[in-house]
Amino acid sequence: MSHADGVVLHCRSGKKFKTDVLLWANGRAGSTHGLGLEPLGIVVNHRGQIEVGDGYRTALPHIYGVGDVVGPPGLASVSYDQGRFAESVIADGGSDWLSLQDVPTGIYTSAEISSVGRTERELTAEQVPYEVGRATFASLARAQITGHTVGMLKILFHRESLAILGIHCFGEQASEIVHIGQAIMCQPGEANTLNYFVETTLNYPTIAEAYRVAALNGLNRLF
Asked: Which domain range does residue 83 map to?
């Protein structure tokens, strides 16, 4: 309910919250209205989204769905590659060069939030022995120089193999530097371990230096 001095939100529980403004984030919906999918036997949910299987095929194997019409993650970058993948399935029967696993997410707020890979909650549920390496932006020379000292980089890695399992970051350029962690995490064999950042020289002063700081912090936590 709107008032001259603010907004009152009435919840189903009976609680009321009065604030200056109300932001209602309802999520994305697929633009499938009017396509005539239901008569074909393709079910559309309340958000206009359809279910797809391997190769992004719908219930009808000759009809494919990609992007917002198939639901999360609903990212432009992922939608672009989903289209390329579906095209390769149609033309060549599949793709061995395009991976849609461990795609990065970016929230372009101030400060930015970005991540790739698994979360601590997921690793805990899967009973994976993991450790965390952290680097606060306040300790980075570049952040101090530019004044963007609010932020943190977190590396999740396997306690035994040191394989990188997830990268989570918030702060200035978070959606940019997450790709560094993504590139190493997706390497085959032993090339995707914490040792890469421990043994690699990074430019100083840069925000990317947070990877080396976080890697050393994580390694110290094992001993």
From this structure: 38-92
